[in-house]
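Re: [help] complex structure
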Amino acid sequence: MIFTWPIGLRLKKQKNLLELPIEVMPPVSFVFIHFQQHRGKPAIPLVKKGDAVKIGSKIGETGGEISSPVHSSVSGRVIDIKPHPHPFLREGLCCVIESDYSDTWEQRFIDSDYHSLSKEELLERIEKAGVVGLGGGGYPTAKKLLAGMKDRVNLLIINGCESEPNLAADYRVMIEYTASVVEGARILQKILNVPKMIFVLTRNYKMAEALLKKEGADVKILPDSYPVGSERVLIRKITKITLPADKLPIDVGIIVQNVSTCYAVFQAVKYNKPLIERVITISGDGINKPKNILVKIGTPLSAIIQYCEGLKDDLKKIIFGGLMTGIAQFSLDTPVIKTTSGIVFQSAVCEDEINDCVYCGKCIDVCPMGILPQMIYTFIKNNEFKNAIDYGLDDCIECGCCSYVCPSSIPLVHYFKYARLRNMHG
Amino acid sequence: MDKLFIVSSPPHIHTRLNLKNAVWIVILCLIPSLIAGVVFFGFYALIIIFISIAVSVFSETIFEYLSKRKTTIQDGTAVLTGLLLGLSLPPNVPLWIPLIGACFSIIISKQIFGGTGFNLLNPALTGRAFLMLSFPQIMSVNFKYQAPETLSEIDAVTSATPLTLLKSPFYYKITEETLRKMSSFDFLKLLLFGHSGGSIGEACKILIIAGGIILLIFKVIDYRIIIGYILSFCLMSLMLPGRINPLFQLFTGGVLLAIFFMATDWVTSPVTKNGRWIFGIGCGFFTALFRLISHYPEGVTPAILLMNLFVPFFDKIAVIIRR
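Output below.
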């Protein structure tokens, strides 16, 4: 490993995204709330057609060991429960709610005395609020914390690195809700009983750094290379520990949480407010007004487009998530779910022809996990899946760096995803 | 929904440095060397290079047409092969030499193996090796006589010591003694304008280095091969009998052109990082060794071709080291 110090890519942030303040999106007439918004089992529907719901009503119950409840984000009436386009599952069971535009909450109180709550009570509030990892993974936060309470945790990392070039939501959250974010992180620290908690930011987040330091948080700065925000890369950058593919961060006593998750945790604990809205970044050259917006979970794409003053005519691609890892969408009905961190509307699509591998080794140079994408790709092409795993397929974090640099435009990540599915299903 | 969207797997952005652009950047970086060669050696050199490029492109088109493959002219690799072959030829060879060499480079070394991306050996160097072995008289006689003539024009005023020694067919073996006799100005001049009148592309060393640095900045070529090559080559020059000044070694003959433009060829260099270190070090070692022991004044061609053959082996070693 001496000669192979892995480096990532340098991707420029899209223009002005960081300067756009968070705007609260006005209520919409219909929301589409998916029962699968997190890692693990989908939630079990609790409501049926015709039921009246309020803001924050639980409409889906925890569906298994690793799962999370879902809540209504508007008050109104359930119109239907049916399959609907899903950001990454193609189609998923979805609850359609027609809003009555009133601001009636299921149950809401402000508990400013949350400091006196016990760890278990705090955890219960987080679980009931359906908080999941908002960085993109969507792992239920309560489950992660529960695992952390059982094992010894000695470091809590609050991840404020958004290395994707089209995301600025976490940055805006850190700037505009600084106190809440830090307080949320302290709640997590209390639950885990961990001595050390650090915020990790990239170098271009100067202002967030200053604000967080003012709140008394411990901040660490990393160079703004991609994919520094990815959990495993982050852990290696900070602690110099390289996690093997079959180990989780918790196995080495580390827990990573996203800054937006901290904000959601604070909302859940203090205001007893379930996770029904989040900040997302709308960007790209195919939309008229890029924005950072606070949007209700379940808002369909078409409503967001309307709010952002419409599409440009030459729009070619709509991507949920980051430019490097996001999923391209086929329908304008797709709603925002808990793990959606941004939406890109792309007009200038790269349509290079796929050629044969020229053995330039750029994918190996750039791979942040230090695996050998080119060789793994060759094995997968020849259906040698066992060899592919021997050469590090399981270590792949699907960050997309190899596909990005490939001079022959080979969709390497696509091959890796395919091989993983093949391995999973035999 | 009246409009359909493009759906594809991530990532949704892509670097602009695709194969085509990279190859054209390399060609652009070679253009200054080409111009210098034409200025030094005359218009005839340009004709040689033109024939070399034209025949490369032509033979690739014909072969791909006959073998019913998709044409790959637009990616520029044939132009680059032709240009590199032309630049590595002596400046007054008969015109059928680049013709045969380019044909051999493209058809035997590249297309037979499957075209771009599948060749084992660097096509330009293979063509040159073929010419050196088949027509040693033409290829080496010119080496000997061309050098003093061209240099005398530029260096007419300055000290004549290096020039007289240059007439020896083994001019690259000039010892440190000669170097010590030269003033620092002469040495600088040596660095700038090179010393050998060898082949067309070797006329002006500083342009080759500049081109190489531009390629490094654009991340077209990898620094590991270059550093490994230079270090091991200099070290070997110091250690082998004769103890030739490594800088002098570096600035004579086609070493620089080979380091920056031939050893770093994407297709024929290792893919792994450690493999590239080994490859670069091996190239330097054998270049120095072949210069000393072989009959040819140049050691670059056989050294790089030999190392090209070991590339899969180096990659294998690198994979094993990594574990």
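Chain A touches chain B through 51 residues (CB under 8 Å).
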